[in-house]
Amino acid sequence: MQRARPLRAHTLIFLFVISVALLAATAAGGSEIGGTPAPGPAPAPTSPPPSAGGASPVASPAPVFAGSPYPMSAKGWVFPLYPLSRAAPRSWWSLDQGVDLGGTANQCGSRLVELAVASGTIVHEGLDGFGSGAPVLLVESGPNAGRYVYYGHAAPVLVPVGAKVAAGQPIADVGCGHVGISSAPHLEIGMSPKGAKNPLDMPNVGETSHESLSNLASAYKAATVAAAARRSAAKKAAAKRPSR
């Protein structure tokens, strides 16, 4: 009898452990008879591993606004002025802190709308010399993730500070009249220096303007190629229609 007591105690402990384990398994994965496991939380997105040699991972592409009139360019920007037919050609652009570009006939307001060049968040409005409504976009995906892009001489702003926007989404109009220090309606668009931590950290003249120009030129080319393809497709479709 003295040997039976410890045996019974061990048996009860063993059965208790098994019962707890079965209850935990059922709660996590459902019962075995017709049970369906409850869906767990989606795994957090992870960055792709660095490539061999310690290179930085490639940034994810910027989401494009469903109604964007232009495709994403190879440099990761959407052209920022719409409609393309009213935007001044590449030969008219000039360099400043950023890049000055505008309409073919000083169009402004709803006649020349400014688009987000990449997806991100509007983090600030109003810049010294650029007007009280000049929006600043913090780019959050694509090759320029983490950089600030400013839209000088814009008015009015179409989205509030804190708004999440996608590439190609309207965010402001080209300001009419003198908005900030300007002689005619236009957009000055530029990027903050690399490593800038504040949307008010503006670039010096020539510091990032060539980088902005390269992105704009790529975006303009993508927009013009897409527009030419649409015109060609429309002509072909018209030619196939039976004449009356």
Notes on the structure:
With 244 residues, this protein is of the alpha+beta class. It has helices at 4-29, 209-240; strands spanning 81-82, 94-95, 99-101, 109-115, 120-127, 131-139, 148-152, 154-157, 164-165, 170-174, 187-191. It has a seven-stranded antiparallel β-sheet with strand order 2-3-11-7-6-5-9. The radius of gyration is 29 Å and the shape is globular.
Number of helices: 2
H-E string: HEEEEEEEEEEEH
Shape: globular
Estimate the strand proportion. Answer: 15-25%
Supply the helix-strand structural class.
alpha+beta
Mean pLDDT, rounded to whole units? 81
Task: Please give the share of residues in helix.
Answer: 10-25%
The biggest sheet, with number of strands, parallel, antiparallel or mixed sense and barrel status, is: 7 strands, antiparallel
How many beta strands in the DSSP annotation? Answer: 11
Radius of gyration: 29 Å
Give, in spatial order, the strands making up the sheet with the most strands. Answer: 2-3-11-7-6-5-9
